[in-house]
Design a protein that fits this description.
Radius of gyration: 19 Å
Strand order of the largest sheet: 1-2
Distance between the termini: 24 Å
Order of helices and strands: HHHHHHEHEHEHEHEEHHH
Number of helices: 13
Number of domains: 1
Largest sheet: 2 strands, antiparallel
Amino acid sequence: MSKDFLKRYESGDYGVWNEILSQAGAVVADEELYAEAKSVATAIMGRVKTNANTVRKTLLKAGMSLAPTQSGPLSDAGLSFLTNRFGPLPLSLDVFYKTIGAISLTADDYDYGDNELEAKDNIDMLTLDPLIVEPATIFEWAVDEYDEQFAEDDEENNPFALFICADFLHKADISGGEPHTVYIPASTPENQLDPFVNTDEGAMPFIEYLRHYFKWGGFSGLAVMEVLDDDEIDLNLKMPFEQVNGDWRAAAQRLLETLRAGLIDF
């Protein structure tokens, strides 16, 4: 029943993953199709890892002080505190943890230090929502806390919230909203393949979430450029550009071009 998902993906058909999700029920139910979906997810995460490394190199070359990435790829044993309790993780997230483990494009101790990228146009990049995907293992304590809070009969209506990262304000050491989370166990075939990441601004599948960040060079705050009327932009979203001299949109575009240099589609 093979559909050559991987072959098509590797030939540049990056819409294959969305096609897989559109057939999620059949894919989850068929061992061969599920294996193909896993191979595509693995290929995607390989490209995500390349992009994360590319952006980190760009930031380091500019003289930025980056927080260390807190984990490399995790093993089945490293994820067992989740899988033994809640069953298999959603496919894309499971492959992420086993292929990459974590991503961090944020500053060390909330300060990128003196660097060329911020100095060029006086853009505050810490408030631009740098991509962070925390390693699963740093929140192992949360499973025990969950078990203390909810009885077994309550779990269906209170799924476990797996922490992905803080919201963009907390990333900048400013009191903000709720963290970005994924709920497990997955409630639908689509979520078994690619779970929704829940944020203050809505929810999107995990791979689409990663695509969104890398569309903006790893700093999704640059998406504010899509708002055409300055008067419609939330004050918090204007923070990165408060000290820019001249046209902030031109400055944002220059930064985006630098951040996206060398990135690959996935």
